Amino acid sequence: MRHIPKAEVKAILPEDWNEKSTAALEKLEGVYANDPEDKRKISKTIDGNTLWSKLRAPFAKLRNNKCWYCESIIKRSHKPIDHYRPKNAVRDCSNHGGYWWLAYDWENYRLCCTYCNSFGKEETRGVAGGKGTEFPLWEEKSRQCTRGSCAGERPLLLDPFKKADTSLLWFESNGNVIPHPTKCEDTDGYAYKKAEVSIAIYNLREDDLKECRGTLCDEIETKARNSDKYYAKYLNGDAMAYEAWEDNLEFLSKAVGKNAEYSKAVVHTLMHIRNECEMANTILEECVGG
Ligand SMILES: [Zn+2]
User: Fold this and answer.
1) I need a labelling partner for 86 at 20 to 30 A (CA). Which of 51, 76, 228, 280 fits?
2) Which residues of 157-189 are buried (b: 16+ CB within 10 A; e: fewer)?
3) CA 2 – CA 165 distance, rounded (Å)
């Protein structure tokens, strides 16, 4: 998970977004006043279409079609926009009708893949998970059940809008993901629980995903280590070796970029070997900032 600065998202909203979202919410309030049980009306309020679907294309373009939760590039999908706080219902909280007042609030939207967004069973995915209407909190008593600010809630789901959240995951060299060993050191604490719950709900340990990350991490490590060999050859007068070194530099610089698939796992792969690999160190210092 990489940080998605809110300012970047705000800058790509359509010009009439505020006007339309305000009108949609007013309409929705009317629906709820008349028929509070019919939650499905949220998605039918705007002329049979959902207002947020207009944001799919610009949100996808912002990060090269990547899921904001798992960093997979989304291919052949509707590119769902997840409501971080679910709009219609909250799982395991039967008296909660969902955070309906945030249905048209862009700050509640996250672009994601269907594996992260929709709940799936073990038989179909190899592992049960997917967000669905999940929105667990550290303290259930702080849950906001009526229209109002949610600032008092401490969600157990990592949020790509929060830079501090995105550093709580740690990728191992085989592609597995765990809570960050030092930031989540206290296994009874909020940070550890938040990372663990997010890994499960966003399906981040799903077999195919883990394998994709693992294969990429192998490739990255090999290229980084080979680069040091090319560099040594260059110092001994092999001009061709410099070109090979430069190609690897370009490849690795792109792979740690915010638009590259699984870039956080790539960064961590380089961190694992930085003390023994000069290229890993160079990339981390120049492209990621140490
Ligand atoms: Zn995803």
Assistant:
1) 76
2) bbbbbeeebbbbbbbbbebbbbbbeebbeeeee
3) 9
At which residue do the structure tokens 């938040």 appear? Answer: 194
Ligand 1 centroid to 116 CA: how many Å?
4
**Domain residue ranges in the chain:** 6-205, 208-288
Tell me how far the alpha carbon of residue 264 lies from the centroid of ligand 1, in angstroms.
14
Q: CA–CA separation, 202 vs 131, rounded Å? A: 6
- Going from the Cα of 150 to the center of ligand 1, the distance in angstroms, rounded, reads 24
**Centroid of ligand 1 to alpha carbon of 120 (angstroms):** 13
Instruction: Name the DSSP class of 172.
Output: -
Distance 221 CA to ligand 1 centre (A): 24
Please enumerate in sequence order all residues whose Cβ is within 8 A of that of 203, keeping only pairs 6 or more positions apart, or say none. Answer: 70, 115, 116, 120, 125, 127, 129, 130, 209
C-alpha of residue 29 to centroid of ligand 1, in Å = 31
Q: What letter does residue 46 receive in the DSSP assignment?
A: B
Q: What is the pLDDT along the chain (290 residues), one digit of tens a residue?
A: 999 999 999 999 999 999 999 988 888 887 766 666 665 566 666 655 678 988 999 999 999 999 999 999 998 777 889 999 998 889 888 888 889 899 999 999 999 998 898 776 666 555 566 788 999 999 999 999 988 999 999 999 999 999 999 999 999 999 999 999 999 999 999 999 999 999 999 999 989 999 999 999 999 999 999 999 999 999 999 989 999 999 999 999 999 999 999 999 999 999 999 999 999 999 999 887 64
Ligand 1 centroid to Cα of residue 84, in Å, is: 13
